[in-house]
Amino acid sequence: MFKRIIAIAFIIFFLCGCGRAKEPAAIKIGNVSASASDFERAFKESPYSAVNTVESRREFLDNYITRMLILKGAVEKGLDKDEEFLKNVESFWQQSLIKIMLDRKIKELSKNVEVSDIEIKDYYEAHKSTEFKDKGLQFVYEDIKWKILNNKQQEPVNAWLNSLKKSSEIDIDYNLLKIKK
């Protein structure tokens, strides 16, 4: 049931323009329509917007209409109720929520994380004979800084994840999962 609700919400979201006040349809294909702002948002998120010309907009419009036709056909064939589709929507929903949560948590937990020049030099000295053969510090400085920063950011995130596990009641039946303890 939950999967069907997600699928229906996804389709309504796409077909109705995300629940905003109804705008006039700029494109109509049967009972499927898109407003000018729907088109504009999709255009801006596409590679076509890199060169915003009349030609690129026309080419995108052709692509956009093709997508709408395929979507309309899929809904007419009942693919929006297909088990494979529903599983894909559920997986996408979960992955999107996880990504957004992790991105926000990393930003929150690492806002005060800094990397000093000394840390970068020390890392370089410790790894120059293996990782940085024939490369001066000035050529790998930013790579080392990025690596150290990521490691420092990972520590509070791991601590947060561990605290989630510790504060949650988790029951696992290893026999049902066919995993030996």
What general outline do the C-alpha atoms trace? flat
> How many helical elements?
7
What's the domain count?
2
The total of beta strands comes to 2
The end-to-end span amounts to 33 Å
Structural class: mainly alpha
Q: Oligomeric status of the shown chains?
A: single chain
Major sheet: order of its strands?
A: 1-2
The gyration radius over C-alpha positions equals 25 Å
Q: What portion of residues is helical?
A: 55-70%
Element pattern in H and E? HEEHHHHHH
Largest sheet: 2 strands, antiparallel
Global mean pLDDT: 87
Give the low-confidence spans. none
The amount of beta strand, in percent, is under 5%
Features:
two-stranded antiparallel ribbon, 181 residues
General description of the model:
There is one protein chain. With 181 residues, the chain is mostly helical. It folds into two domains: 2-99, no CATH class; 110-177, no CATH class. It is 66% helix and 5% strand. The chain contains seven helices and two strands. The protein has helices at residues 2-16, 36-44, 54-76, 83-109, 117-127, 137-166, 174-177; strands at 25-29, 32-35. A two-stranded antiparallel sheet has the order 1-2. α1 crosses α4 (83-109), α4 (83-109) crosses α6 (137-166) and α5 packs across α6 (137-166). The relative contact order is 0.07. The model has no long low-confidence stretch (mean pLDDT 87).
